[in-house]
Amino acid sequence: MKTQIFILFITLYTFIPLVQSALLGIDLGTESIKVSIVDYGRQIDILLNENAKRKTFNSLSFHNGERIIGDQAHKLESRFPKETIHNYKQLIGVEFDEKTANQDQNMFQKTVEDLRRGTVLFVLSETGFGSAIHNSTFYKYTIDELGFSSDHMIFSGEEILSMILKHIKIKAEEIYHQRFRDCVISIPANFSPFQRKAILDSADIAGFSVIGLIPDHLATSFHYLSDKLTQIDKYTDYNIVFLDIGSGIFSASIATVRAESVPTMIQNRNRTVGKIRTRGFVYSNEVNGRLFDSAVVDFLATEFDSRHFQKLQKSIRSSPKAMAKLMEKANYNKHILTVNNEVRFFFENLFEGLDFSISITREQFESICAPLFEKISPILDQLFTNSKMTIEDVHSIELLGGSTRLLKIQQIFESYFKKTPSFTMNSDESIALGAGFYAASMSSQFLTKEINASDLVPYNVSVTLITKEQIYSDSPQDYKEKSLYSTDQFLSVPRKITLLRDDDFDLVLSYFDQSKNEDVKYQRISFRNIPELLRNASYDPENTSSSIILNFQYNKNGIVNLENAVVTFPYILEVKQEESNELKEESNESNELNEESKEELKEESNEESNNESNEELNEELNEINEKIEQEKKEREKFFAKFNIIDYNETRIVSLMPIASFEELGIPKVNEKEKKGMLNRVKLFETREKEERKRNEAKNNLETEIYSLREKIEYDFKEEFEKFSTQKERNSLSKIMEEVSNWLENEGMNPETQTKEYISHLEKIQEPSREIFDRIEEYKKRPEAIALLKNTIEKIRTGIQNIEKEKEWITKSERDQVLEKSNKVEKWLEKNIKKQNSKKLYENPAVLVSKIERKEREILYSFDFLMRKPKPRPTPTMKPSPKPDLNKYLNDLMGNDSRNFTDEELRQFFKDYSKNDLQDILKEYIKEQELKNETKDSNSNSNSNDSNSNSNSNSDSNDNSNSNDNSNDDLDSNSDSNSNSNDNSNSNSNDNSNSNDNSNSNDNSNSNDNSNSNSNSNSKMIKFK
Fold it and tell me: Biased-composition ranges for Basic and acidic residues (predicted)?
């Protein structure tokens, strides 16, 4: 049964096509997120958001009980800064401290420390959400301990990012009408393992499966080479510098790109392969677009305080809302200074009812941001130090990011590199497009340009060995530490460490944090019970030594992991003394047995046959071989139990089954927290879905009230009075007033249910619908009646034409259609009379929809009759002219007899039926008999024999003819017992045979082609 199920599964798997899904490439920026779509049959393109924009702001807001994501949340930053979260990317997966949490002075949310993980939590106030959302949060303990009110909400960076990613996923699925699961996310290369794990947790909560995390500089290199792969010269190295100053980080990198031709399977056909080699990179938070904005905001706040501080006795910096307005304006106006020499800032009611206006020139802006501009050159110096290259080695400089559009920054780059930077790449979307290309290249479902990349290690990684003694020791120990990876190495190369030991030990993996300038531990790997494992694998510590081999590798997310751990040692099989003696005795016995068997074989060879001696010897040897094979199988079974790979020369035992992994440093989001995040997101989604339905019902009710008033008072005022009674109008007015009052009072309450709006809408629609239906029926009725009458006349005319032109249509069919039309005509006349007796304010006697349905019914019957095809005439076969068989036979046989071939007989049977042939042959025989009688009277004595022979033949022919009448066969039997089998009912007997030896010894032969040949055996039939 299991075998059948397995075969069925393989069969179904073979014929079911693989489900292909599209991919996403996500550029996770500080200020905004760009997403590329990788779909079948399309080029990699950018996903448009709900506002048809190519980027979505990385913002989340909670306002008036509503969760707002993306562009709409960005618009609320300046109005409700305490309810909006933005610029949180650099705080995901980092430890909480005052300096880190408040590194952006214009972040207006309060941040607190997660008591379990030690990370940053964001606190929002006055969100307007009910107690159901707040009570469901798993951070409730933090809210209680910190003393926040019940209206506050707390979020981790992972939860915020997961909600934004889920929003992007839903929008992509709505636009492309398919599910999106796999994605690639671009991040700064200096992200720590904790930050990378936090990004992966966020994507998992959002429903994504991350193919890999790609550094920003590598994604940029992929997009650059994919566009220029066919444009650059082959076998030539180009050193490209990519400079990207974004909203949150400044990245500078150098990559060597190259194009090569590689032969394909097709003869004389090559393909172009690209190669990317990262030579160096630098990521810095000291220069970014957000800091430029903050510098301008600080200048504006200082200017405002200098004018109004004495009057207000407080600084504008105490107002988050005023500072948010300054930040929004500074971000917008700094780009205007790229084109204009001066820009004006004007704020109405900026702070405490005061307006503020000031102008800033380009020179002032450059002076304000001078400390930031001065940090650019040292960062570039560090880039060339890391890459071990010089400025002269650079072939091209590519600028990306919004802040690289500033003229001062372009001048700094041009002065540093002594050449003009270029903007040949899409500065806003290059990373997203490169991430999409990387996603497609990692998937087996897409065929892309072949580009191979070699990237550098993002951070130094070291491993620390903790021995068994140090594990259980409380005193400080001097641990052995070894470097695994350094930033000048390629991360695709695995690393191997060999330890000469056979006892328990621990490994601790650490990475170097540049911001703290120290090593940070992030994983501990413990190996326990190694001696017991080796003892079970027959390890002898006295006679041999073991080596432990550890293999480390960077994974697709840029985190170093232990890939494999094995212990190796020379194989020595331990055997107990008793067992060894038994084995020796068995071996001696087997040797003696072999010797005796050989001697006996020699003796018996002289006395007995060799077969018997060989059989006995083979049986004894087989018993010994069976014992050896059994022992071998038992050893193999033992080795397989303990993961022993090779036991012939060196035994290799895997240590991975006994390895335990412990996350150090910042803990990951556990399953309980993930479940809590998912539940809260579901609550948000359920609430938003209900809110959308509620708002839709409310809007429909408001629209119906205003529309109905417009119709009654203006559009249909006269018709409304004609087609309704005074009582109906009064009742409708009263209902409208009640519903309108309810909407202005209870309807504005946020707690009002959706069903209440729907019930009030139905309450106002019912009385008004009847009145407006009467108006609509009155307007459409004449046209519907005219159409039905016209259709009836056309049918009658058509029936008359059918009688003349389509005679295959019967009279009953025509009468049936006419009868149906006449009934409809009578029905119409009857209902017209009823309708004419009705008043305008009364309901119609017949509806327009029913008149139209009657018209369609009779028209369909008539069309069905018209489409009846003309029947095809019965084909009649014209009889082919029959040849005169009498004349034909006379011509063939001469005076008295003729031999003819089978082909001639087949032609006769083909042209004539069986009865015709019999009648013709009978007439022919009679004529021949008359001719013979005439010849008999005039013949001489020399022809007597011939006459007698002719008579005898005629008698035999008569007999043959009588047989023909009874058996429907034409047979002639010769003296030589030859048979002729010709069935008159069959025309397919191509090989009818006839042999006849006449008394005149005529041996002439005639074949099927009527060619005479003395050596042929052609079959003949003789007729008289």
Answer: 595-604
